[in-house]
Specification:
The complex is a heterodimer of chains A (about 120) and B (about 110).
Chain A: E1 4-7, E2 10-13, E3 19-25, E4 32-38, E5 45-51, E6 57-58, E7 67-73, E8 76-81, E9 90-97, E10 105-106, E11 110-114
Parallel strand pairs in A: 2-11
Antiparallel strand pairs in A: 1-3, 3-8, 4-5, 4-9, 5-6, 7-8, 9-10, 9-11
Chain B: E1 4-6, E2 11-14, E3 19-25, E4 32-38, E5 45-50, E6 55-57, E7 60-65, E8 70-75, E9 84-92, E10 98-101, E11 105-110
Parallel strand pairs in B: 2-11
Antiparallel strand pairs in B: 1-3, 3-8, 4-5, 4-9, 6-7, 7-8, 9-10, 9-11
Classes of the chains: A mainly beta (about 120), B mainly beta (about 110).
């Protein structure tokens, strides 16, 4: 149980385009979903926290207009990287939690390469 | 100062040997502590939670020292499959269950 999927698993796009990444909880309802970013040889950095039906809470330094998060249902959250640039190339990982439980279930990640 | 700090390694470990490494955290109000394992190009996976009294899971032993604000992980009888990056993770529950990840300690187990 507690499986989280992400789609796509990898994407290559041209600079200036927008990319949407989906995060789905397959067998449970995720009250909260988290979006992380990991650059090579660095650790995961939390970008934002999203609760179903509410606006996402972004971490300091993360542009909310550039990284659009939608958490429209208890099983789906999306992250859209708008007008992507090469410096946005990274490994984007989502996680989901149930209620107030602290356990987070991680998706397999999406590798983004912006040319 | 980073909230969660780890020695990046790599720790080169002969197969069958024991390896141990620490992680320090800066927020004394931190509530929960975990070790995650991350393989190359994969998502992190929970290895074990760390309890105040220390806990063991097979060949893995975790300790928590609240006074000095560090946690440790010890791996006994290392296997080749233990090669990975081990992430120290701290949860400040007051911050809405947000996890703060350390930079990871890379362990390479060699035959």
């Amino acid at each position: 149980g507690a499986v989280v999927s992400q789609h796509p698993s990898w994407v290559i796009c041209k600079s200036g385009t927008s990319v949407k990444i989906e995060c789905r909880s397959l067998d449970f309802q995720a009250t909260t979903m988290f979006w992380y970013r990991q650059f090579p040889k660095q650790s995961l950095m939390l970008m934002a926290t999203s609760n179903e039906g509410s606006k996402a809470t972004y971490e300091q330094g993360v542009e909310k207009d550039k990284f659009l998060i939608n958490h429209a249902s208890l099983t789906l959250s999306t992250l859209t990287v708008t007008s992507a640039h090469p410096e946005d190339s990274s490994f984007y990982i989502c996680s989901a939690s149930i209620g107030n439980q602290e356990t987070q279930y991680f998706g397999p990640g999406t590798r983004l390469l912006v040319l | 100062r980073k909230e969660v700090e780890q020695d990046p390694g790599p720790f080169n470990v002969p197969e069958g040997a024991t390896v141990a490494f620490n992680c320090t955290y800066s927020n004394s109000a931190s509530q929960s502590f975990f070790w995650y394992r991350q393989d190359c190009r994969k998502e992190p996976k929970l290895l074990m939670s760390v309890y105040s009294s220390g806990n063991e899971d097979g060949r893995f032993t975790a300790q928590l020292n609240r006074a000095s604000q560090y946690i440790s992980l010890l791996i006994r009888d290392s296997k080749l499959s233990d090669s990975a990056t081990y992430l120290c993770v701290v949860n400040g529950k007051a911050a809405g269950n947000k996890l703060t990840f350390g930079g990871g300690t890379r362990v390479l187990v060699k035959p």
